[in-house]
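Agenda item 2: flavin-adenine dinucleotide complex prediction
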Amino acid sequence: MKFARKCKPGEDIKKTGKKVAIIGAGPAGLAAAGELICVGHEVHVYDMLPEPGGLLVFGIPEFRIPKKGVRQGINELKEIGVVFHQNTKVGRDIDLEDIIKEFDAVLIATGTWKSRKLNVPGEKLDGVMSALEFIVDFHLHKYGYLDHEPRFQGTVLVVGGGLTAVDACYIAKEAGAEKILLYYRRTRDVAPAGAKEFEKLENFGVEVNELTQPIEFIAGEGKKVAAVKAIRMKLGEPDSSGRPRPVPIEGSEFVREITAALIAAGEIATPPFENGKYGIELTKWNTIKTDKKYRTTRKGVFAAGDVITGPSLIGPAMAGGRRAASAIIEYLETGEWGWEE
Ligand SMILES: Cc1cc2nc3c(=O)[nH]c(=O)nc-3n(C[C@H](O)[C@H](O)[C@H](O)COP(=O)(O)OP(=O)(O)OC[C@H]3O[C@@H](n4cnc5c(N)ncnc54)[C@H](O)[C@@H]3O)c2cc1C
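Presented output:
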């Protein structure tokens, strides 16, 4: 995967003397790093995980994105001169204000690392967990960064209709699940992952239940989940998303035994600060507010990728990272700052 498009390792690049910090080594941050290093800026990338790549490495399974190509692209960035600071969580290990003061420009590309909850009884039982956390832990273990191996037995329930839910099904199988149930509250034709992915899951042996919503997780021994109570849904009038609103069908409740549940009800943007801190405003969706040149409300600080759009795809995240890098290059040349809707 190519992150540096305009220069190669070993090439003589005239230094500008300007320093740029990038927070988040996912596709948006890496694509921006590739543009900035090739024009001669000093580039430092800060990331909370032990290896760069973000969801490219720790989220998306190998069969969709082979890691060899991603790692090649990252190694190329290192050879050209990008400095990576891994295991460094901004807001915990280092203060954003200190970074802003040290660098001429900062790009925030921290993605969407918080999972929505279903807000149903029993969601705190052992064995009920965020699908994203499970997927990341699975990859951390697979690549040698985590001793504890996430493993399942018996029937695992996955809840959701996006790529996280789909990939959680495949990975749960790899982690030992004997049977996998997928519950999605709408129908596959309006699922964010697309109907084809549902078909592939069925061919893989997953029992797909559309128009089905968990309403309670039930404990067995101790605090361990042993069953799910769910309800069937029908489609009603369109909601704010433009899709038909799922409406519960009274009296259609049923109970299934499960050994674990992976919740993939959507991810929320995770800027490394609260709204307004450092003079940087967020939107009501917790994404970072930016103008058309990826400028935040704080001079010299830019943002790109899923942290400004909400959960998206690799292509748009990389394209956004590159456009933000162009805006940073322009700012470092002209010193001009403003706000253009
Ligand atoms: C399971 C799953 C499967 C997917 N499958 C596909 C697919 O097949 N095709 C596709 O196009 N898209 C897919 N996507 C979506 C795609 O991965 C994202 O849209 C894309 O990775 C977003 O890029 P990003 O750089 O904005 O954020 P991320 O990739 O999330 O990277 C953000 C980086 O910021 C770091 N970070 C976060 N907070 C901090 C902090 N406080 N301090 C330091 N570092 C921090 C994280 O460690 C991470 O490395 C999938 C997503 C998931 C979850």
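Discussion summary: The pocket of flavin-adenine dinucleotide is lined by residues 23-29, 46-49, 54-56, 59-60, 64, 89-91, 109-111, 113, 132, 135, 163-164, 167, 270, 272, 305-306, 312-315, 317 (CB under 6 Å).
Owner for follow-up: CH.
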